[in-house]
Design brief:
The chain is α+β, with helices and mostly antiparallel strands. Helix content is 33%, strand content 8%. The strands form two sheets. A five-stranded mixed beta sheet has the order 2-4-5-7-6, covered by helices on one side. Helix 1 packs across helix 5. The chain starts with 52 loop residues before the first helix and ends with a helix.
Length: 306
């Protein structure tokens, strides 16, 4: 069943208001990119959702397997991202953001865009203990719509964003904008189905209903999911492009890449994190094989790796 198109003119009323001025997913912004917590989600310490990057990346990839291009990246635009700010939006919102950034011609600092339900669960559980006075329950945040961004310099960006269908939430939540233009879809059910499928693929004897809803079964599965991601990953079905990014790519596919590079005679650590050392190793391998040394591991580089 495909997700339905939203026909309302202003989506923000569908979601409870959060205090996005308090929620910065990557605080403290130390510039240090960290790996995920080695444990289950409900035990993850606060207050940065960077510690669940591994699982979050699996959730986003799984969503795009269910609905192709449900979320598309905007990390190639003129943006600066926090350690756990995922540069993903629905396609129509991404195009509208691109137009606004091109018009203004300066870098946009993005504190939050798409927020996975794993991130949302952490924020909701941490709450006031991390200084978050108002956080929506998982599945209820407009950041799970793929139509929301939290940014710095919101006054400066406001006229450019509003010209392309972005709505400023106002003084109640100054950093927050929602895309309310055409081409929007409701992908909240896809987000729930993603965790349900990931859980079932890895727990064939403890399956939960794949009903696209956030009920007790799904909540329990999410709380007991590994922050680093599941052993059976969605990129086992369809590989993702691997590259140096922020947040840093993590996972079993990165580990396999690092092992293949070592086998090819290029020494690199096998920590499952695509950091600067892995980027350098990939570029060296590409140069040796006569490929463009862009650091992006796609079909051509994978074919040479064997």
């Amino acid at each position: 069943m495909s997700d339905t198109v939203i026909s309302t003119s202003n989506q923000t009323s569908e979601y409870p208001v959060e205090r996005c001025d308090e929620i910065n997913l990557g605080k403290p912004r130390s510039g240090v990119i960290r790996g995920s917590f080695n444990g289950i989600l409900k035990d993850a310490p606060g207050c940065s959702t960077a510690i669940v990057n591994g699982l979050s990346q699996q959730l986003i990839h799984q969503m795009n397997l269910i609905v192709p291009d449900a979320l598309v990246s905007f990390d190639d635009l003129n943006v600066d991202l926090g350690d756990a700010a995922y540069a993903y939006l629905q396609p129509a919102a991404q195009k509208a953001l691109q137009s606004a950034i091109q018009d203004r011609g300066v870098k946009m600092v993005v504190n939050s865009a798409y927020r996975t339900i794993a991130q949302q669960l952490l924020l909701y559980n941490w709450g006031s203990g991390c200084g978050f006075s108002l956080v929506a329950p998982p599945g209820k945040s407009n950041h799970q719509s793929g139509l929301a961004i939290d940014i710095e310099d919101y006054d400066g960006w406001r006229p450019y964003l509003e010209a392309y269908g972005w709505h400023w939430l106002g003084d109640i939540d100054p950093p927050h904008f929602d895309y309310v233009g055409g081409g929007r879809q409701d992908i909240r059910g896809t987000a729930m189905l993603a965790i349900q499928k990931l859980w079932n693929n890895n727990h064939p004897n403890q399956k939960i209903d794949e009903d696209r809803g956030y009920g007790p079964q799904t909540e329990s599965a999410l709380k007991n999911s590994p922050a680093m991601g599941f052993e059976i990953a969605p990129w086992d079905e369809k590989p993702r492009l691997l590259k140096l990014s922020r947040p840093m790519m993590e996972g079993s596919d990165v580990t396999k890449l690092q092992e293949a590079l070592n086998k090819a005679g290029i020494v690199v650590g096998t920590d499952g994190e695509f950091g600067p050392a892995t980027d350098k190793a990939v570029k060296e391998f590409q140069r040796q094989k006569g490929l463009e040394p862009d650091g992006i591991v796609g079909p051509k580089t994978r074919q040479k790796l064997g």
